[in-house]
Here is the input.
Amino acid sequence: MNLGKYIFGVREEYFAKVSIKEKERQFLVFNNLTLMYFIMVGFTALSGIVYGLVIFNNWIYAIGLGLFFGAICFVLLLLVFFLNMTTNFQELYLTMTDMNPLFEPYYSKDLKSLSDEVALATVEEEKQKLRETNQKATFDYFHLSSVITSTIKVVLILIISAVVANAMELLFFKNSINQSLNQIKNDPTIKICANVKKQENSDDLNGKIILAKWTLNMLEPEQGQSFKLINSQSFLLAHQVLDMSLGPWKILLDVAFALLFLTPFILLKKSNEYAGGIFLKEAALVDIAHSYLFFLIAERERQKIKVKIEQEYDYNSIITKK
Amino acid sequence: MKRNFFDVSNIVFWILLSLIGLFILPYLKEPLYNDGRVKEWVKLFDTIQPKPEPIPIIEEDSSKIINDTLNYTFKVWDWHDFNGEWHSIKFKYKKGALDEAIINRENSYNYGPLYEHDKILLSDLIDKIKSSIKNRKLSHMDALEYVCSSIQDIPYTLVLPEMNGCPCEQKFGSFSAYCRVQSDGQGCCEGVKPFGVYSPFEFVYHETGDCDTRALLAFTILKEMGFDVAVMVSTSQHHSVLGVAGIGKSGDSYGRNAFGKKYYLWELTADWWRFGNSVEGYDWFAELE
Here is the structure.
């Protein structure tokens, strides 16, 4: 299954001029990247559902939040991925960003008699020439601003991963968390504390009383409802219990999720099989060829129209009118 | 080499995903989840937990008394303990401390500010008592008796807030003498604003005081030594005593704080009263702890 086609547009026709082995490799790397992308979007959508259930205790809102989170992650990760999808074949990159050197010779040429077939042949010839002269991909356009943009991308991915990690931990350990929450709810100490009257001149004790009351209140569902996922109305309380119970393991899980989310980004940034791969090279060539062909046809038509205007337009009428 | 990076990163991703996926299984996640910290957290709501161990007593060489006569004055605090043994502690206090204590007392409307202010003025006395206890290797109970006996050894003096309160007849005795230490315990002090209690420093200075003045001094010294104590008040008895917690059951007289914590009562107004002896009244509550 060619998953890469749906997200990155990896189609068969791009690989007409490359070996089967190379084509298969490109399919593999882009399929993998797409799968990673889908997994990350799936995780984010699932985390939205988890948060929705904890916060709203309602399946419809939870699914809505899941779709919302999934959509945000879909767009943001796509943006991050596409920003790194630039070919490292330098001449192609430079030609794509500034095509004037390619067009200049034609400004002084007579193209009025240029047929579509000849134009297409010229473009194909140029495409083949660029394909053959660009054999080595090198990264040589470093700029200080790329450090800033990379930092922003990494921070963005880390935020998403932290959101997902916390939701997944709540989901994985929901039974244990619910047991702990029930213990808190039934603990006589906290019940006594919640029933004590507030004291003057004792902020510390009053703080405990308020916290105890709030905690017990959060552990009771709304009237006529039952908890759907976590037995707490408060996400913060559930998170605190999770944090206390997992201790250092929570940090380890958070790091695992961060690495999981960063891996595709690092892969895309550092692996030469994306920016230095055949797919992006061929995509750049197709892009150049399209622009080149449309330039030739447009220039031909411009020259024809110019002659027609010179011959047929009644300039005397303009002078008379004046 | 070019392809290795992709292969390695790819493997890392799938291994990480598999490891995370393993957490769905109960066998792996159970050992990671430890609700011990949650139980500890719940204990923080427990308002009747015993306080931590008393502050370690810092040994101090009593011979090294700084003779800073420019800024400090000295006083001797001496008494007979419950066994009749004589004790004497020389301590220093800042010049002008009495005026400071009076001003603070006149502007304080409960026991808390008196304790907070005077514990600094009495810091040298408290340190000396700590050293003495340390040197004598006294037990927890003996240390309590050591401090309380020094207060109980001083005869009672009634302290009243009214300007013309003395002499007077109270249901617990006749108070006709001057505002001085009287061996018969009939001394009477008037005009001690705002509510008829001397601050701890004033009590040490004048050695005159009634129930709450005594309880407050004992509280100040013992609290600074790390004991779990309180100033206990009874509305029905119009009386005040020292409350001690965290020492096990001691007699039948006890009061509670607002959270139900028990403090056993120690009457400090007479030298024969010992910890565990019953104290009248059933409405004792912790006013300061």
